[in-house]
Design goal:
alpha+beta; MutS, DNA mismatch repair protein, domain I; Dna Ligase, domain 1; 3 domains; 5-stranded mixed beta sheet; 4-stranded antiparallel beta sheet; 13 helices
């Protein structure tokens, strides 16, 4: 089994960008906040902060208790996206980036002589060296393995600034020292679920067959995990979709027309991000608002095929204008947005009156997706 994947993970990315741009922050414990407020939490921490036990999700007040000298800075998402693209270009100058997985993670497919361990290590060293030439305070950990899953696992095994190889001969023994939560896809809830199946170690997890893993996961992802642990790249079939959307039951305090509109906009952004992940365009959008003690409001519209969040937002605003003024006094209890009439983005034929999306629009939509994936759904 060859080495097929090289995974690049930028360490404490947001904090590292701040230290790269601001010399006064270098070597200091810093926490990056979404807003400058005592009631919020860190969305990133420098390695100097991590030494005190501060991490993503640590509340400001708790961070101050752990480190009295911590410096808080407000996040600058536009800059992080800008540097994200610069870093992709640097890695691309060394080898092709197969897939960008988040704002601070990407995977490169190894081919030919790159699949030999010594050559893969030389490539990793070159990537680090080229990044260091331009941005010495942005460090990365690199994992090299037969598949993406194990390469990501390897990249997490030595931080910061590490490089770890998992070869076929290392499987599974090199994994047995890891905690279950060290494996991608196993969070707190999944760990609890596995424990109900008496699975508490990676060794116990690895010993299960496909059927047992499917039962533990409650679906086909368990079978895929069987392959992932063994260095096999699982095959994902893109299902043909007839519709894609999201709905939401409104909490009592938001049951106003303004609240319904705000939630619909968040649902639209979430659906647009999913649609782009499937390389689809939609040419039909519909909105539904369930009302208390009233017939539901429903509106739909045909649009030129698009995956552009701004164009979809304009379509949503137009549909919302059809809501009768008399509804201002009623109570919306649930809302939903739905896309249908899909076409493949790669094969799209744009009509005479529709401009093909320009590079800036594509970059904007990618930036929205990257930030929402990193910060959490509906951040932007």
């Amino acid at each position: 089994m060859s080495l097929n994947a090289l995974y690049v993970d930028f360490n404490s990315y947001f904090a590292s960008v701040e230290q790269q741009l601001r010399p006064e922050l270098r070597g200091k414990p810093i926490g990056v906040l979404p807003v400058m407020a005592e009631t919020t939490c860190c969305i990133a921490a420098s390695y100097e902060s991590k030494a005190f036990g501060i991490k993503t999700g640590t509340m400001v007040r708790d961070a101050r208790k752990l480190c009295k000298d911590i410096i808080f800075v407000e996040a600058r998402p536009v800059l992080y996206v800008e540097y994200h693209h610069k870093l992709i270009e640097i890695v691309e100058s060394c080898t092709h980036v197969e897939k960008v997985l988040s704002i601070d993670e990407m995977v490169c497919k190894l081919t030919g002589s790159q699949q030999v361990k010594d050559n893969a290590l030389k490539l990793a060293a070159k990537i680090k060296r080229e990044i260091n030439k331009q941005y010495p305070f942005i460090r990365s950990s690199i994992g090299i393995a037969p598949n993406t899953f194990l390469a990501k696992t390897a990249s997490n095994m030595q931080k910061p600034d590490g490089c770890v190889v998992i070869e076929e001969c290392d499987i599974p023994q090199k994994l047995f020292s890891l905690k279950l939560r060290a494996l991608n896809g196993i969070g707190r809830q999944m760990e609890a679920r596995l424990k109900r199946y008496k699975i508490e170690t990676v060794e116990q997890l690895y010993a299960l067959n496909r059927e047992q893993l499917r039962a533990a996961w409650g679906g086909v992802e368990g079978e895929r995990y069987y392959d992932k642990l063994r260095g096999i790249e699982p095959y994902y079939v893109k299902n043909a979709r007839s519709s894609l959307g999201h709905s939401h039951v409104m909490p009592p305090e938001q049951r106003t027309i303004e609240g319904a509109k705000a939630v619909l906009h968040r649902l639209l952004q979430k659906a647009a991000m999913r649609m782009r992940s499937y390389d689809l365009l939609t040419s039909h959008i519909s909105v539904k608002i369930k009302l208390r003690d009233q017939p539901s409001f429903y509106a739909e519209s045909n649009i030129s095929a698009t995956d552009n969040t701004l164009k979809l937002t304009d379509a949503l605003e137009a549909l919302f204008k059809a809501l009768p003024m008399a509804y201002n006094k009623i109570e919306p209890v649930a809302v939903g947005v739905n896309f249908t009439a899909f076409s493949n983005a790669q094969d799209a034929a744009y009509d005479l009156f529709t401009e093909k999306p320009n590079a800036n629009e594509v970059k904007l939509n990618k930036a929205l997706d990257i930030l929402n994936l990193k910060y959490g759904k509906n951040t932007v």
